[in-house]
Amino acid sequence: MATAPGIPQHIVIIGATSGIAEQCARLWAQQGAIHLVLVARNQQKLQSIAQDLRVRNPAVQISCQSAAFTDPLAINTLVATLVQHGCPDLVLIAHGTLPDQALCQQDLASNAEALQINGVSPVLFAEAFVPHLLSAGRGTLVVIGSVAGDRGRKSNYVYGAAKGLVTRYVQGLQHRLALAGSAVKVVLVKPGPTDTPMTAHLKQQGAKLASVEEVAASIVTGIQAGKPTVYAPAKWALIMMIIRHLPRFVFNRMDI
Amino acid sequence: MVAVSSWGRLSNEAHQVQVLADRSAAVAQVRGNSPGICYGNGRSYGDVCLNPGGHLWQTRSLNRFISFNEQTGRLRCESGVLLRDIQRTFMPRGWMLPVTPGTQLITVGGAIANDIHGKNHHKSGSFGDHVHALHLLRTDGTVLDCNRAGDRADMLRASIGGMGLTGVILDAELQLRAVNNPWLTTDTLPYHSLDEFFNLAEQSEQDWEHTVSWIDCLSGSQARGIFLRANHADAAPAGAKEPGRKQLNMPFTPPLSLVNGLSLRPFNELYYRLQARKAGAGFAHFEPFSYPLDALHNWNRMYGPRGFYQFQCVVPTADAKPAIAALLDSIRKAGAGSFLAVLKTFGDRPAPGLLSFAMPGATLALDFPNNGAKTLALLDTLDSIVRECGGRLYAAKDARMPAALFAAGYPDLPDFINFRDPGISSAMSRRLLGS
C-alpha cells in the first residue's frame, strides 16, 4: 500500500486497548502504516484488536507487547526494547482509567492509584521515550490528556488533577524541545467525554458523549496538521476556553 | 439509567445499559444482567430492540473483524460491526456484502436478528442466506457454536430473523460476494399504474440484480412511481467520480412533523417530475444508490417530537395486485404517508430463518408521522387488508401490530418458541409473544 508523505509508518501505542487508541490504530492501518507496536495490560483483548487490524490491512505488521504501567524501572526497560530496532515515527501514550470520584474521596488508596495511572504513568512513558526521539532527531510524541485537566471540577477533580499534571508536563517538554531547536514534536490531545467502555457508567447517568470514531478522526488529522494541542472534537477548544475563564463566583455555583 | 429510543422515536424510556465491548467479558455481563435484549445501532423502527425499565446490552463496541479469506471471501467478525465498515474495508479489495438494506448504518447482529433484505432479493435472498455460522451467547453463560453444517443448524435457523430472542450473537461468519468495482449501471423507468409496475418487476427479474420502486403514496390504486433497476458494472464507467462522504445533519427536532398534509403532495409531485426527467440508462456509485438516506444524519427527526410509525408488509403473489391497490387506496383516503414509499417484489425462494420476513410476493413500505389515534386507525385498516390475503408485517419496523396478526403471518412461530432464551425479553416479545 502506498503511503503519502507525512503519514506515520512506524507507530508505538501505549495503552492500545483503550477505545480511542484502538480507533486511531484502525485509521493509521488504513492510511498505510507499516509497523504497529501495541502495548497493553490485557493480552486477550489486545490479541483481538491486533487480529482486527490485520484483517483491515494485511500489509501492516502488528506486534503485541505486555507491560507494567506504574513501575519506573520496567517502563524504562520496555521503552529501550521498543526503540531497539529504530525510533518510531509516532508514539501514542493513551492509557488511563476513569476513576470514581466519590471513591477517591473516601479511599486514599484508590485516589493514589488514579493519580498514578492517569498522571504519573503517562509522564514516565513520555520521559522514557524523549531521549530516544531526541537522538533520532525526529518523530512525534502524542500524549492523551483530557478536557478534565483544564479546570478542576467537583465531579472528577482527581482525574482532572492527574490530567492537569500531564498538561503541565507536555507544556514544559514542548518548551524544552523548542529551545533545543529539535525537530521532535510533542502533541497533547484533550478529548471531551467520549463514548468508550471507560465511560460506560457516565452514559448510565445520561451524559452526552462523542462517538469514539469521531474523536479518533480529529486526533489523527490534528496530529497530521502539526498542532501542539488537539481538542477532540474541536468544539471543546471553545467550550473549555469559556470554562477556564468563568469567574470563580459564577463557576462555584455550577453543578458540573 | 439511560433514555433510549429506537429509530421511530415513538418512545424514550429509561434502560439499564450494559456496553458489551469484549467477547470474553460479555459472558459475565449478560449473565449478571438479565432479562435484557441486544441493542445495536438503533436503526430498528419499533420496539424489537427496546426493554423499558430493564437491561439493554449494547453491542456497537463489539466491532472487530476476526478473520478474512481473500480467496473465498469468507469473513468472520463481531456482531457490532457496521455493514458500512465491511463495505468500505473490503470494496477496495474486490468484495462486498451480498445483501444490504436501505441503510448500511446497521450492525451485523441486527442484520441477522431481523434477517434484513435488499433490492436484490430475487437474486440473492436475504442476509441470513449468507450467514454460515455464529457464536450465540445464552444468558445461562454457555456459548453455542451454531453452524450451517453442524448440530446447531436449527439454532442458527431460529436466530436468523429471531429478533434477538435466541441469545446474544457474539460474532458471525459471512460469505461476501466478489465485485469488480463500486459502480452500478442503472435504468430508471417512470410507471403510471400498478399493472405497469408488476410487468416491469416481472420483466426485470431475469436480467437485473437490483430492482426497487419509489411510489407516490397519494396516487392510490392509479399508482404512479419510478422503477429503478441496476446491475453491477463490469468496469468503472468513463468519467465516474467517487462520491464525497460529506454528511448533512438534521440538527434538531422540529416542533411539528415536516412531513404532513401540506408538504406531502407538492413534494411527491416535485420528486416524481425530477426523477422522471432522469428516465433511461445511467450509472451510480453503490453508496448513494443503495443508501440515499445515510447522507442525511438524524433524518428521523424530520417527523417531529412525536416520532413516526413505519409500516412494511408483504402480500403473497397470488393476491399482490389487488391487495397493494387496496392498501394504496386506504392510504390515499387518509391523506397520510411519507415522501419515501417503496414498492418492490420479492423472489420466489425459501427463507433462511424460521421468522424471516421476506416471502414470495410484493412488499410495500412507508412511514406515517405519529398523529395518535388517527394514525393507529389507518394502520388497523392496513392490517386487515394484509391479514385477509395471508400477508405479514415486518417486525424490524413494527411498534404496534396485534399479536394475532403476527401469529397468523408467521406459521413457524410455535416451532420458534422452543429456541428462545428464557433470559431474554423485549418490549416486542412481551407484546407479540406474551413474555
Layout of secondary structure:
The complex is a heterodimer of chains A (256) and B (435).
Chain A: E1 10-14, H1 19-31, E2 35-40, H2 43-56, E3 61-66, H3 72-82, E4 90-93, H4 101-106, H5 108-136, E5 140-144, H6 157-180, E6 185-191, E7 194-195, H7 200-204, E8 210-211, H8 212-224, E9 229-232, H9 235-245, H10 248-251
Parallel strand pairs in A: 1-2, 1-4, 2-3, 4-5, 5-6, 6-9, 7-8
Helix pairs in contact in A: 1-8, 3-5, 5-6
Chain B: E1 2-4, E2 13-19, H1 23-32, E3 36-39, E4 55-58, E5 65-69, E6 74-78, H2 83-90, E7 95-96, H3 108-113, H4 121-124, E8 131-137, E9 143-147, H5 153-159, E10 168-175, E11 177-178, E12 183-191, H6 194-207, E13 210-215, E14 225-232, E15 248-249, H7 261-277, E16 280-285, H8 286-290, E17 296-297, E18 308-316, H9 320-334, E19 341-346, E20 361-369, H10 373-388, E21 392-393, H11 403-409, H12 413-417, H13 427-433
Description:
The complex is a heterodimer of chains A (256) and B (435). By secondary structure, chain A is α/β, with parallel strands linked by helices. Chain A has a single domain (10-196, 203-251), classed as NAD(P)-binding Rossmann-like Domain (Rossmann fold, 3-Layer(aba) Sandwich), CATH 3.40.50.720. Chain A contains 10 helices and 9 strands. Chain A has helices spanning 19-31, 43-56, 72-82, 101-106, 108-136, 157-180, 200-204, 212-224, 235-245, 248-251; strands at 10-14, 35-40, 61-66, 90-93, 140-144, 185-191, 194-195, 210-211, 229-232. Chain A has a 7-stranded parallel β-sheet, sandwiched between helices. In chain A, strand 1, helix 1 and strand 2 form a beta-alpha-beta unit. The termini of chain A are far apart. The relative contact order of chain A is 0.12. With 435 residues, chain B is α+β, with helices and mostly antiparallel strands. Chain B has 2 domains: 65-179, 2-Layer Sandwich (Uridine Diphospho-n-acetylenolpyruvylglucosamine Reductase, domain 3), CATH 3.30.465; 183-402, 2-Layer Sandwich (Alpha-Beta Plaits), CATH 3.30.70.2520. Chain B has 13 helices and 21 strands. Chain B has helices at residues 23-32, 83-90, 108-113, 121-124, 153-159, 194-207, 261-277, 286-290, 320-334, 373-388, 403-409, 413-417, 427-433, and strands at 2-4, 13-19, 36-39, 55-58, 65-69, 74-78, 95-96, 131-137, 143-147, 168-175, 177-178, 183-191, 210-215, 225-232, 248-249, 280-285, 296-297, 308-316, 341-346, 361-369, 392-393. In chain B, the strands form 5 sheets. Chain B has an 8-stranded antiparallel β-sheet. A 5-stranded antiparallel β-sheet of chain B has the order 5-6-10-8-9. In chain B, helix 9 (320-334) runs antiparallel to helix 10. Chain B is globular. The mean pLDDT of chain B is 95. The interface between A and B is medium-sized, with 16 and 21 residues.
